[in-house]
Design a protein that fits this description.
Chain lengths: 178, 159
């Protein structure tokens, strides 16, 4: 009987590893940027291209940077959720308009509503490379010191928002007010 | 059967040739840099379509990253500097050959460890077997039959 326990044990271990490995989303690559300073950038604003927006302006605030584009199908799914999140006023959401056409992006916001305090226009995607973006939408939570504390690849579902983003933002704000 | 295999092989080779064709460089003016870019980007994963190299991929991000690499090469950065630029942003995952660091020890050395463990088990098993199966000398009857069989065999060969 003992003879069969070892292969059986090995088989169970293998099955568990495969079950975990195969159920993972291969697109969720851990970002090396977590707990690193958010890369600095200064970009023209989408709605007022003569004005710029830079990450440095957000020092001292907890904020969210959401990478979106009008050509991005999943962003369209995420958009109503962002509008809801923005309405609660829990945390300012800024947009990074990624490799988009200005008119398309503006039309998109007109049609669907604008959850962003403002959007920065990263038309050639260079800033996105600094942020390690490879699939919009992506969302970053950045703290008062300008450190990236959380990154979501793909839409921020209500579950992620309520269980991860909101508690983190509240915790960061508490720490900041001390 | 053999012919079918042959036809399949030829077809397969054809597919490989077609898919192996690199994405055309968008704006290559310096052949030396283009060559370096092609070599380097074959080592890099396109994160959008994860089983393609950066050299083969036509995804928008891959084009942007090729442009970025090209510009850094023109600015005189070494391949190593460019790789660390990319891993700082996208992590080790972008490398098809991950660097040897404590987090990748298992990946790099695990197979060899498994091989050694396997060899050790095999060695122990063989030794144990040798001990448990005692030598049994042939009886005279068996010896006679063996000689008979052997002579019959050699007789056939010489004939």
């Amino acid at each position: 009987m003992g003879k069969y326990l070892i292969p059986l044990g090995l088989f169970i271990v293998l099955t568990v590893f495969l079950a975990i490995g195969l159920n993972r989303d291969p697109h969720e690559v851990p970002s090396p940027l977590i707990n690193k300073p958010a890369p600095a950038f200064s970009l023209p604003q989408l709605k007022e291209p003569t004005k710029t927006f830079s990450a440095a302006e957000m020092r001292g605030k907890v904020w969210i940077l959401n990478v979106w584009a009008s050509w991005c199908v999943t962003c369209r799914d995420e958009h109503p959720l962002l509008l809801e999140y923005a309405k609660t006023g829990a945390v300012p959401i800024y947009g990074l308009n990624y490799k988009d056409q200005r008119q398309d992006a503006l039309a998109w916001l007109d049609e669907l509503g604008d959850p962003y305090v403002l959007s920065a226009a990263d038309l050639d995607g260079r800033v996105a490379i600094d942020y390690g973006v490879y699939g919009a939408p992506e969302t970053y939570v950045i703290d008062q010191a300008g450190t990236i504390r959380f990154k979501q690849i793909g839409p921020v579902t209500p579950d992620i928002w309520n269980k991860q983003v909101l508690p983190l933002v509240q915790e960061l704000n508490r720490q900041g007010n001390r | 059967m053999k012919r079918t295999c042959y036809v399949l092989l030829v077809l397969l080779a054809f597919v490989c040739v077609v898919s192996g064709k690199d994405a055309q460089p968008a704006s290559g003016d310096d052949p030396a840099i283009e060559k370096r870019l092609t070599n380097l980007s074959k080592e890099l994963r396109c994160l959008v379509c994860q089983n393609e190299t950066l050299a083969d991929s036509q995804a928008g991000l891959a084009e942007d990253l090729r442009r970025e690499i090209r510009e850094q090469m023109k600015a005189g950065k070494s391949d190593q500097e460019i790789i660390s630029f990319l891993t700082q942003r996208y992590g080790q995952f972008i490398l098809y050959r991950p660097q040897v660091t404590p987090t990748t020890y298992l990946l790099w050395f695990g197979p060899f460890a498994l091989l050694i463990i396997g060899l050790a088990i095999l060695f122990r098993y063989i030794r144990q077997r040798r001990d448990t199966i005692p030598d049994q000398p042939l009886t005279s009857e068996e010896r006679r039959r063996a000689a008979e069989l052997l002579s019959a065999e050699s007789g056939k060969e010489s004939a």
